[in-house]
Amino acid sequence: MAEDSVIEKNTSENAEQTQKLPSESELSCQGDGALKTADSAVLKLKAATAQPNLVNGQRGGGDADSPATMNGMNSDHQDNRLNGDLNTTEAQNGHEKPDQVVQPDTKCPLLNGHSEASVDDPDSKSEVVTEQSDATESNSEDLPSVNGTEEGDKSKEVEGENDERTDSEKESQKDSKVEDVIVIQDTAFTLKIVPPVSEAFELQVSPQEMVQEIHQVLMDREDTCHRTCFSLQLDGNVLDNFAELKSIEGLKEGSVVKVVEEPYTVREARIHVRHVRDLLKSLDPSDAYNGMDCQSLSFLTTILNDDRKRTKSNADSVDCTPPDYLMPSSKERPLVNLQPISKESRVASCMKVLTVSGWNPPPGTRKMHGDLMYLYVMTMEGTSHHITASTRGFYINQSTQEMFNPKPAEQKHSSHSLIELLNKVSPIFKKNFAQLLKKRAQRHPFERVPTPFQVYSWMAPQMEHTIDSIRAEDAYTSRLGYEEHIPGQTRDWNEETQTTRELPRKNLPERLLRERAIFKVHSDFVAAATRGAMAVIDGNVMAINPGEDTKMQMFIWNNIFFSLGFDVKDHYKEFGGDAAALVAPSNDLQGVKAYNNVDIEGLYTLGTVVIDYRGYRITAQSIIPGILEREQEESVIYGSIDFGKTVVTSEKYQELLAKSAQQLKILPHKVTNHKGGEIEIFSSIECKGIKGNDGRHYVLDLLRTFPPDINFLPIEGEELNDDVKALDFPRQHRHKLCCLRQELIEAFVEHQYMVFVRYAAVLLMQQQKPETNENNSETTTNIDKSIEEDANKTSETETTKDLDVIISNDTINEAVSEKDDKKDCQEESNKSEETDDNKKSENDLNDNLKEAANAVLSGKCPMLNGLDTTGIEQLAENITNVTDEAAKALAETQKKKLTDSSHKEVIAKASKAAGSLVDTEFDIRFNPDVFSEGVTHVNPESEQFQKEKRVVKDAARFLLVGQIPTFIRECLEHNIAPLDGLTLTEALHQRGINIRYLGVIATIVSTAPPLSYLYRLLVSEMIIRAAKHSFKIYMQGVGMVSLSVAISHFLNCFLGSLPNPQPPKADDEMSNGHGKKKRNKKKTGRLITALGQDSIAWANLSPTEMWTNLKAEVKEYFHFTLECDSIDTATETYNLQKVTLLRELCTKCGVQILLKDYDFDTKHKAIFTENDIINVFPVVKHINPIASDAYNFFQSGQAKIQQGHLKEGFELINEALNLFNNVYGPMHPEIASCMRNLARLNYLMGEHGEALEMQQKAVMMSERCNGVDHPNTISEYMHLALYCFANGQVTSALKLMYRSRYLTLLVCGEDHPEMAHFDSNIGLVLHGVGESDLALKFLERARKTTLKYHGTKSLKTALSNHLVGRVYSSRGDFRTALRHEKEAYTIYKEQFGEHHEKTKESSEFLRQLTQQAVNFQKTMNEIRKGNSRAAMRPIPFSVPSIAGVLDTLNMINGVFFIPVSIKSKQGAKTTTTTTEPLESIKAEVETPPEGKVESPSPSSGTASPIPEQDDTTEKMEVLR
Predict the structure, then answer these.
(1) Please, which residues bridge with residue 377 across strands?
(2) What does R_g of the chain's alpha carbons equal in angstroms?
């Protein structure tokens, strides 16, 4: 954390490193050569975190940072130095085989350990070509285009770049848009390192690396890790730690570099002791459980190690039986297995005590003899020693606990390293420490590297608390002792944040350096802000206004400003009081994110983090220079400090904000200030502009950056559309700060733009074809009439299909299966049938639109009321005929001067239809203050102002009639299938849907059986969020002494069946004198001890009262009525799981409970006791900085794969991995996503071993960065299981599949469409190893689940029946097999006809089954008759081969091996497993909803699919 900062930061060093780092970052984007070296980052990073060295002192997201880098940038994040310095490190440490499951591949771009094979070819040169263009260049001047984004939090510049990477991305485009071409000319070379005592070794390095990085490697090697204070010398000359190797004269291939021990200083001695302590606890998982030092949990190795112990030579003899709790229909949900404990990880203790002696500091006389500090150790043998750390090293002195005698003992065992000294003193230490180093070396590097942001576990075992003086020092000192000896004790977060944003960004190396610096500073700031917020809430920070009421107090800690989420001085009185004050920080964070993504040069935002902890919300912000020295009124030179009463502006701010307003679609608008003057505002009125003492222009208070959500803001005199009113809107909300999300704004503008283009294109086509004008005149008239009657309503044609599917409950099942089957039928058809299919789809569109209109007229669809049926029919008829040429013609028309009056008329009509603010072009922007109270607008009665109002209303209406139906349709079509509250929230947010609409969605899907899982999830999420609201208020009345008791009581009231659980009484001693304690704390200005008094109000809570409150909260907040009054009726009514509710509540409220199995069904005692509450964690919200270039490479790679160029796509994604690694360091969720894709591509190209290794890393990274039970982690486990099976590791594959099923059971239960996919995989593998009985149980369960969620006519149902039939056939039960195969045959025949390949295959299988059944019956009859020869007739049982099982597994998981195009084939190994057309394979599987990387596109409002490996149907993953 920042208070532990070890930063040496001065101007000259910063300037020097700013010049140095770009040359280093060049290397990180140098194609294959650099890719091979990304692994060097990991051990360097670990070396960094193992001890706070000069450069790498980061701990816990990093407070201790380096003088060598600017603004807290650790060189450990400058990851991709070329090739090498770890060729021996990882190999000797055992990292080449981290868990004996995967064989390393030297081509693998991350963490495989360098070997000789991975050295760059000296002649090889790689080029990286990146394409970038300004976002605005893709838009015509007259025809504003809408850039489709893949993520809502991307900047517009990135949007423009993504637009470039669509189908139009050709080779010529690459040539024409080359921005950066960087060629690697420096090749790696080998040095000989000669450490003292131990043997010399060779180390592979790159010319661009710094000497410091060799230090880090030495500090992580098993035989040199105990050294920290040394220099590297070449020919007797000491090498500068921060010099690049290429700049060192005489350093070349084969040079001998000596490691020379250096004298200690106090700082170096303390660093050494800390490093020793870190080595001793390197296998201790307590930091991960406690949420410290950015450590987190990973259990993959434990699971796989367990597999290997059970593996036998014969696969058939492997024990494949899953535990009872994993069997289908089991109701048991044990929690202990969530975190399996590895027995091998336990290491014998090396020593009892290692602490700083009480004799410190050395007296003056001893300082003169070189004494630096004193240590006290107690060995495992029980002997105690006092040790002197001197400039020469460490030795034992003659002191005791009672007497100070610093002279050396008789056997002083003088050593330069403390480890060497302890080895001499204690044989047990020597033995156990050697074992520890060996096991440490066996751990995969990904298990040791810190994550960029802290991940907390909601369960933890009871950890043994040991003596640790360094941990104690970290907790209770404001800075580390050795910081006294370096300049700059605390970090200036604002200066660092703004300086990194000012870094140049003209080319790729500069952008990489900039993004890396931004990310590093941000991750450090988040860690420091989180620690500070906890200190504030725990009462450990003095307020800067101690005389104020406790809720109004503000705090400064470590150069960070903290404020509480309460309504201070009635600031939000008109907006909802404390409810508004609570939501304002979240809205402000969204505004900061938007302005950061726009990234206007010269416009600055504050570092902002929002933390929820112990029921309080705290906002942490960096401090504007000078802001605390003057009143706010004096500081603000733009905006308003009183919600519009007084407004000021500045030319500079107008210039800067005009640029951001254009990209954020904010409409500049004029307001009247208190003096009656007109002022033009380019943001919301609350946005304040402050010029800091540093001369920078800051914007803050961005809580209303986006327009208000008029659906939740009833305003007298403002009428909404009838279809919105029919849904009971507008609704009253508890505050008036409801805003639309940026993703919705983007989607709405793009939708309206499509309406504009289509209208104009249709009309232009009619003008360009005069011979058809006569025929189309009636159509034109109808369209014009439709426009005139209600221009806005026509935009609904885009969502009519969605609504038709969603609302027609009578035919909902049929609609789902028919939609899926139409899609699959089209995929199955040959290319020769494409024309017919297109015609059919056009007819289907028209039919659906007409059906929707009929639904409206019959009153079935309140959301569609008001649609003009004539307009629908005519638009459907004409829009389907719009061609690309017409759209291009429109664009060309817009570029020219519109002299043709008819063209002007076309544009005017199209603009009116799309709701444009002007008639001459498409222009939709939003006035965020259009409904703000207290703001005096200029000409509020004008037509233009009414248009501004209408646009805001239309956007809010689009959320209801566009985005919500689109979301539901995607769930119906199984494109997305959220597993838990987190993935549901992300899916909604990516489509611009706010959480307050949960009740609306739940009401719509409540009567749709195929969405019963979604309904259950929606209800669960509303209950959990209502409980979270109650928990916050509840916790504010609880003092520190009662925290665990109070939380356990809350959980008992929420989840327990005991009518009146009684909380344990507080300790009498702690309760006495409470009033006195309260008064004292008021004086000291401490926070929570005054706020959270030990009152007994919380103890009066009962389950009845809690559930009454929950029902009321859900009704008020979500406008949804819960049909339950207790946990038991809730679980019964909505089919909820208590364990799922517990997990959701703990993760959302930051509660950690004891890892054990809880009896949720007991009605005689409380479920939880105070000892079951382990800890309380903060829930942190912050911005995730984007690696834009890496993301663009990733998108380009996906596009290439979609076009069938697998090899090129692989190389681009490989390069994206390299760039992600360069910006984020070795550990990040985006890197896990890259690795998953690379593993998939390796698998597609037949490289099963590489796929397995890469996916293993993706699993570990997802566990570490997302959480061990995150839905993404579950998905990664399933992918790894497939690759394990393909590599012949059957037992491992089954264990991983069982792990996936177990986690899914905890997260959402058995009743989920994803479970059908898991069960099919498990059943197939069990069948493959001869476990037919077990296989049947899983496959039958999968069949039932598929039937429920996909319908009777679905091709998935056909496949499930076929799989079940195969198992019955292999068991000799031909009758049952025949029955299931007939069902499959019926579906195929109905969908494809008799002559389709699939139907023929099924028919042939039926024939074989029938023949086998007849033969079997004949044999049985003859046996009954006593014919002895009958028994000799063989009965043909079909036993599946492993290859056959793998083929089916590939099919189930959406993996198809395909011939690769000539372009892609260079160097790629390809496999083709079938000769029949790909289309016929795809009929087997409708896109499963889980395994594909999805880059959601808020702009389109739909999930924009990331490539399905060249015509393959890949599984869709619920949110990346």
Answers:
(1) 354, 385
(2) 34
Element (H, E) at 688: strand 688-691
Q: H helices within 114-193, ranges in order?
A: 156-164, 171-176
pLDDT of residue 1346: 95
Sequence letter at residue 597: N
- The count of other CB atoms within 10 Å of the CB of residue 316 is 11
Residue with tokens 């899926």, as numbered in its chain: 820
- Each as own residue / partner, the long-range contacts of residues 211-215 (CB below 8 Å, 24 or more positions apart, any chain) are 211/239, 211/240, 211/241, 211/242, 211/243, 211/245, 211/248, 212/54, 212/55, 212/68, 212/75, 212/241, 212/242, 213/40, 213/44, 213/75, 213/81, 213/85, 214/85, 214/257, 215/47, 215/53, 215/241
The neighbouring-strand residues paired with 180 are 130
Residue 912, helix vs strand vs coil: helix
Which DSSP symbol is given to 1511?
T
End-to-end alpha carbon distance in the chain:
29
The owner of tokens 């849904």 is 727
pLDDT digits (tens, 9 = 90+) for 173-231: 433 333 444 434 457 889 999 998 888 999 988 887 889 889 888 988 888 888 999 99
Contact 979, 1274 (CB under 8 A): yes
Answer for the pair 212, 47: CB distance below 8 angstroms, yes or no: no
Question: Which of 24-38, 635-649, 1257-1271, 1359-1373 has the weakest average pLDDT?
Answer: 24-38
Q: Bridge-partner residues for 656, per DSSP?
A: none
DSSP per position, 156-175 = HHHHHHHHHSSTT--HHHHH
The pLDDT of residue 1430:
53
Rounded-to-integer distance, Cα 811 and Cα 170, Å: 45
Residue in the block written with tokens 């100070």: 404
Tokens of 894: 């817009």
Higher pLDDT among residues 346 and 514, named by residue:
514
State how far Cα 97 lies from the chain centre. 28
With CA atoms as reference, report the closest residue to 1289 among 343, 110, 318. Answer: 318
What is the crossing angle of helices 742-768 and 884-895, to 10°? 90
User: Model confidence over 853-907: pLDDT tens digits?
Assistant: 333 333 333 333 333 333 333 433 444 444 445 555 555 555 554 446 778 888 9
Q: What mean pLDDT value characterizes the chain?
A: 76
Distances (CA, A) of 416 to 51, 198, 1022, 1437, 1489: 17, 14, 61, 73, 59
Q: Under a CB-based contact definition with an 8 Å cutoff, are residues 336 and 450 in contact?
A: no
d(CA 704, CA 206): 50
Q: How far apart are the C-alpha atoms of 890 and 903, rounded to whole Å?
A: 9
pLDDT of 968 over the 50 cut: yes
Residue 1279, CA atoms < 13 Å, CB-side half-sphere: 40
CB 1397 within 8 A of CB 1480: yes
Q: How confident is residue 1433, by pLDDT bands cut at 50, 70 and 90?
A: low
Number of Cβ atoms within 10 Å of the Cβ of 811: 12
- Please identify which residue in the block is written with the tokens 């009153």: 859
The yes-or-no verdict on residue 1487 having pLDDT over 60 is no
Whole-number Å distance between alpha carbons of 867 and 625: 56
DSSP codes joined into one string, 512-573: HHHHHHHHHHHHHHHHHHHHHHHHHHTT-S-BSSTTS-GGG-EEEETTEEEEESS-GGGTTG
Backbone angles phi, psi at 356, to 5 degrees: -75, 135
- The secondary structure of residue 123, as a DSSP letter, is T
Q: What are the angstrom distances between the C-alpha of 571 and each of 357, 577, 681, 1378, 1448?
A: 53, 8, 22, 74, 63
Asked whether the predicted pLDDT for residue 1470 surpasses 80, the reply is: no
**Token pair of 1509 as six digits:** 């490996």
Q: How far is CA 1146 from CA 73, 293, 377, 420, 1140, in A?
A: 34, 21, 40, 45, 10
